[in-house]
Specification:
This protein is an all-alpha fold. It has one domain. It contains ten helices and no strands. α2 packs across α7 and α6 packs across α9. The longest helix is centred in the last third of the chain and has 22 residues. The radius of gyration is 16 Å and the shape is globular.
Length: 199
């Protein structure tokens, strides 16, 4: 397990965000995300934090590099925006402006792009079964810690993600969605999937 943790830590450092990022402008008729869309977006960001040991700091750093410093000048303001996820322990009411959700999506896509090799490794069938199992276990453990710390344990969605039998397929789906958010067209794919979310 320590060896796997070392591999992930090394990959995280090697894949540090680069300021040369091309933004895709949000559509002029952008609509607010539904509560279900906000939920999925925040959970995907949480997955990135489970994969990147410095994920929280990286998001704030990226917000400045991408020109979103006024929206997210620090971790507290970023936390306030993400707290609109209805699964959060302290959920904030109301909807987010399209500019706010667009900024979160841009940050997520940039992180997914940087961590794509790690995401691809998790999904690879060419990896030795034991090593792949260890990597998934480490990811599930870290994500589980974040879920128990930040999410409302009484919500059925949180209980499902933490369930040792029901949770893994959902987590794999999140990782697959993150790979689709990386690379050219990643932002458009992510936005379309979140806008299609029902709820």
């Amino acid at each position: 397990m320590d060896a796997v943790a070392g591999i992930i830590a090394a990959m995280t450092q090697a894949l540090a965000p680069s300021p040369e990022v091309g933004l895709v402008p949000a559509p002029a008729d952008a609509r607010p995300l539904s509560r279900r869309g906000l939920e999925r977006l925040d959970l995907m960001l949480l997955c990135m934090e489970a994969l990147d040991l410095n994920g929280g700091e990286a998001m704030v750093w990226l917000s400045e590099q991408l020109g979103y410093h006024q929206l997210f000048p620090n971790r507290v303001e970023l936390w306030k925006i993400r707290s609109h996820n209805p699964l959060r322990r302290a959920c904030r009411r109301g909807s987010l402006a399209p500019a706010e959700t667009d900024a979160l999506m841009q940050i997520l896509c940039t992180m997914a792009d940087r961590l794509y090799p790690m995401l691809r490794t998790l999904l690879s069938s060419a990896e030795p079964a034991e090593l792949s199992s260890q990597r998934w276990e480490l990811f599930r453990d870290r994500l589980g810690q974040l879920l128990r710390e930040r999410m409302n344990p009484r919500r059925s969605g949180v209980q499902t993600l933490l369930d040792p039998e029901l949770g893994p397929p959902h987590l794999r789906h999140f990782v697959q969605s993150l790979t689709l958010a990386a690379g050219p067209g990643g932002y458009e794919r992510l936005r379309a999937s979140l806008m299609d979310a029902v709820g």
